[in-house]
C-alpha cells in the first residue's frame, strides 16, 4: 500500500536533520519525520482545537477534506520557528490530531467495543477498533516511532489480518495504520458523545 504524498512547506523545530531527508515511505517511515509531524499536529490542535476537531470528524476520503487540512496545516506554520519543508500526508496529520484531541479530553477508548459504531468509510479499521479497543488504546499510549509503538502494533497485526477481506492487501505502513485507527476511534467517541 503506497501512500500518496504531497509537499507542504512547514517549519522544523531547530532540528539538525535536513528537511529533504524527512519522508514517509510505504515500507520504512522515517522516525524523525513521524516525531516532527506529531509535534506539529499537537501544536496545531493546541492553537485551534475547535477547527482541528471539525476537520478530524469530517470524511477524510474527499478532495475537499484534503484541501481543508492542507489549509489548516498552513495556518499553523508558527508552531515551530525554523523554515523548511516536510513531506505531508493528510491522513497521518489528521490521525495525529485525532489522538491529541482524545488525549487532551482524557478519553478512554478501551471500551469502544461496547459502543454503537458510527458510519465510517473504513470497515477494516472499524473492525479492529470494535474488536480490540483495549489494544488500540494501548497503542495510543505509546509515542509515535517508538519501540513501544512497534510492540503495540505487533499485538494488533493478527486482528488486522482477521478484519481484512481476502482480496485486500495487508496494511504494511504502521504510520498509516495508526493514523486510521485514531481517526476511526475519534469517530466512535464523537458518535457516542464521549468528547
Features:
195 residues, mainly alpha, two-stranded antiparallel sheet, 8 helices, globular, disordered N terminus
Task: Give the helix/strand layout.
Blueprint: E1 6-12, H1 31-47, H2 49-57, H3 63-75, E2 82-88, H4 90-104, H5 123-131, H6 133-140, H7 147-163, H8 174-191
Antiparallel strand pairs: 1-2
Helix pairs in contact: 1-2, 1-4, 2-4, 4-8, 5-7, 5-8, 6-7, 6-8
Number of helical segments with 4 or more residues: 8
Termini Cα gap: 32 Å
Q: Rg, please?
A: 16 Å
Shape: globular
Number of domains: 1
Query: Which strand order do you get reading across the main beta sheet?
Result: 1-2
Outline the biggest β-sheet.
Answer: 2 strands, antiparallel
Q: Approximately how much helix is present in the residues?
A: 40-55%
Number of strands: 2
Overall average residue pLDDT: 81
Q: By helix and strand content, what is the structural category? A: mainly alpha
Element-by-element helix/strand order = EHHHEHHHHH
Stretches with pLDDT under 50, minimum 5 residues: 1-27
Q: Percent of residues in beta strands?
A: 5-15%
Please give a structural write-up.
With 195 residues, the chain is mainly alpha-helical. The chain has one domain. 54% of the residues lie in helices and 7% in strands. The chain has helices spanning 31-47, 49-57, 63-75, 90-104, 123-131, 133-140, 147-163, 174-191, and strands at 6-12, 82-88. A two-stranded antiparallel ribbon has the order 1-2. The longest helix is centred in the C-terminal third of the chain and has 18 residues, at 174-191.
Amino acid at each position: 500500500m503506497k501512500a500518496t504524498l504531497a509537499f507542504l512547506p512547514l517549519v522544523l523545530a531547530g532540528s539538525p536533520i535536513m528537511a529533504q531527508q524527512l519522508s514517509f515511505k510505504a515500507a520504512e517511515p522515517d522516525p524523525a519525520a513521524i516525531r516532527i509531524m506529531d509535534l506539529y499536529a499537537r501544536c496545531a490542535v493546541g492553537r485551534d482545537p475547535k477547527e482541528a476537531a471539525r476537520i478530524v470528524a469530517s470524511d477524510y476520503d474527499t478532495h475537499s477534506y484534503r484541501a481543508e487540512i492542507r489549509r489548516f496545516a498552513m495556518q499553523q506554520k508558527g508552531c515551530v520557528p525554523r523554515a523548511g519543508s516536510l513531506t505531508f500526508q493528510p491522513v497521518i496529520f489528521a490521525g495525529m490530531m485525532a489522538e491529541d484531541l482524545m488525549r487532551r479530553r482524557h478519553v478512554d477508548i478501551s471500551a469502544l467495543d461496547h459502543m454503537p459504531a458510527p458510519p465510517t468509510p473504513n470497515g477494516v479499521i472499524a473492525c479492529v477498533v470494535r474488536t480490540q479497543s483495549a489494544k488500540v488504546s494501548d497503542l495510543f499510549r505509546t509515542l509515535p516511532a517508538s519501540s513501544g509503538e512497534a510492540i503495540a502494533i505487533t499485538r494488533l497485526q493478527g486482528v488486522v489480518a482477521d478484519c481484512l477481506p481476502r482480496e485486500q492487501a495487508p496494511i504494511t505502513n504502521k504510520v498509516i495504520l495508526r493514523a486510521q485507527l485514531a481517526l476511526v476511534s475519534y469517530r466512535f467517541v464523537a458518535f457516542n458523545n464521549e468528547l
